[in-house]
Write a structure and sequence with these properties.
Keywords: DNA-binding, Transcription, Transcription regulation. InterPro entries: Homeodomain-like_sf (IPR009057), HTH-type_TetR-like_transc_reg (IPR050109), HTH_TetR (IPR001647), Tet_transcr_reg_TetR-rel_C_sf (IPR036271), TetR_SbtR-like_C (IPR049445). It comes from Streptomyces anandii. This is TetR/AcrR family transcriptional regulator. This protein is an all-alpha fold. The chain has two domains: 1-62, Arc Repressor Mutant, subunit A (Orthogonal Bundle), CATH 1.10.10.60; 64-195, Orthogonal Bundle (Tetracycline Repressor, domain 2). The protein has helices at residues 3-37, 43-50, 54-60, 64-89, 93-110, 112-118, 122-149, 159-170, 181-190. The longest helix is centred in the first third of the chain and has 35 residues, at 3-37. The chain is globular and about 55 Å long. 26% of the residues are buried.
Amino acid sequence: MNDSGQQAAGAAGPKRKDARRNQRILLEAAASVFVASGVEAPVRDIAARAGVGVGTIYRHFPTRADLIVAVYRHQVDACAEAGPALLASHESPYEALAQWIDRFVDFLVTKHGLAGALQSDNAGFDALHAYFLDRLVPVCGQLLDAAADRGEIRPGFGGLELMRGVGNLCIGADSDPRYDARRMVALLIAGLRRT
């Protein structure tokens, strides 16, 4: 490769990194606005939160559905990436599991509106649901296996089984302020402990 080719390759790397960072900022701003105001919030509110113009959002996400899907996938990815990081940073795999489940509850409760908005497009929703399962079930399974291997929980629980239980406990949490899903999930997770 000649010098000009190396310079072009070097310039493309930081530019792609900046583009990814900018997109991440947009997605995080959109997620915050969606949680606070719902998925029908004005795009100008998202742009203001991200510190960009409305045109920038439409350049990245031509339709609201594109933006909602991207936010949902971004949040799934963040939850998936948190599992191994928590496992690496905690002495106790059970504590890592408990903290990951806490993040999963946040995801379920705050992203319910995103999933609801996408259910009108069954094919798109099915693809996102498959993405959700493909990314998160193995992470939950890894955390469960690590805690069982350490003897902190009883063995024999699967990631999908636990995630379904947690999901069922979160139903209605976004519409009834008297219901404390996090408290109920904490009881479920405590029940995994080996006595």
